Amino acid sequence: MARIIGALTTSHVPAIGGAIAKGLQQEPYWKPFFDGFIPVRRWLDEARPDVAVVFYNDHGLNFFLDKMPTFSVGAASEYRNADEGWGIPTLPPFKGIPELSWHVIEHLLEREFDITTCQEMLVDHAFTLPLKLFWPEGDCPVRTVPVCINTVQYPLPSAKRCLALGRAVGEAIASWDSESKVVMIGTGGLSHQLDGERAGFINKPFDLKFMDSLVAEPEWATQFSNHELVERTGTQGVELLMWLAARGAVPGRVRKVHSNYHIPISNTAAGLMALEAI
Ligand code: DHB
Ligand code: FE
C-alpha cells in the first residue's frame, strides 16, 4: 500500500515568484524567508516522495465567482500554470497522476464529500510557488493531485469540515495499492488581510499557537467559525484551512522536522512547517 510520509505546509504569496525570477533569495528582505526552506529540502532529499497531494485555494484563475466549487479535485495528466495578473512568470506544467486522483475522488464520494472533479485545471501561485520552493531545481519531480478548497467566495467550508476532508484523503491514500511514497502539502495563510480597513493585519500570537496545535492537536482550530478565523487572522488568513486539511491527511502522530515564521512577506505572515509521519 502507498505510504504517507508527512505534511509540508507553507504560505503562498505571488511576490515569491518575482523574487525567484529575479534571483533575490539572498537579499535581506527575502533571505529569512527562503532560508526557511533549506532544512525542508534536505528532508525531501532523504524522504524522496513520488507524489504530492496539494491542498490549495485558487484565487480566480481556474474558478471565478460565477462558479465556485467548495471542494474540487484535479484528475488530469498535467496541470498548466497561466498568468493570473500578478505579472509573475509562469512555470512549466506539473505532472498529474489520474489513477490516484480517481481513487481519491471515489473514496471522497463514498465518504459523502460531494466534490467537483476537474479533468482540466489551471493552477495558480498557491499551487505552483510552494512546489517551486520545495523543489527549486528544474521541473517538479513529483506527480501531483491538486485538491482545491474555496476560501474566496462565501460561504466557505468550516475548519472542522476541512480537517475531515484531509482525513478522508489520507484514508484514500492509505488504501491505494501502490508502492509510492506520498507527501501532503497545504498552502495558504498565515494571518494576512489584503484589503479593507484592516489591510496589513497580522496576528503573530495566533499564528504561532496555530502552528503549535498542528503537531499534536489539529482539532484546536476547529473551535473557530470562519468569521472568528477572519477576525483573528484577517480576511485571507482563513487560507490556513489548507494547513488543517494537509495535517488531517497524515494519519496518527507526527514529528516536527522544521518550522519557520517570518513577517511580513508582502502583506503576509509567512509560515512553514515540515511534519513527518511516525
Ligand atoms: C498575498 C498573499 C496571498 O495569499 C495571495 O494569494 C496574494 C497576495 C500578499 O501578501 O501579497
Ligand atoms: Fe492566497
Number of strands: 11
Structural class comes to alpha/beta
Strand content: 15-25%
| CATH-scheme architecture | 3-Layer(aba) Sandwich
Distance between the termini: 16 Å
- Report the CATH superfamily: LigB-like
Helix content: 25-40%
Described by strand count, sense and barrel closure, the largest sheet is:
8 strands, mixed
Query: What's the overall geometry?
Result: globular
Q: What's the level 1 CATH class?
A: Alpha Beta
Q: Which whole number gives the mean pLDDT?
A: 98
* CATH topology group: Protocatechuate 4,5-dioxygenase, Chain B
Tally of DSSP helical segments: 9
Structure report:
The chain is of the alpha/beta class and 278 residues long. The chain has one domain (3-277): Protocatechuate 4,5-dioxygenase, Chain B, CATH 3.40.830.10. The chain is built from nine helices and eleven strands. Helix 4 packs across helix 6 and helix 6 (159-174) runs parallel beside helix 9. The longest helix is centred in the middle third of the chain and has 16 residues, at 159-174. The chain is globular. Fe (iii) ion (FE) binds at residues 12, 59, 126, 188, 236, 239.
Descriptive labels:
278 residues; alpha/beta; Protocatechuate 4,5-dioxygenase, Chain B; 8-stranded mixed β-sheet; 3-stranded mixed β-sheet; 9 helices; 11 strands; 33% helix; binds 3,4-dihydroxybenzoic acid; binds fe (iii) ion
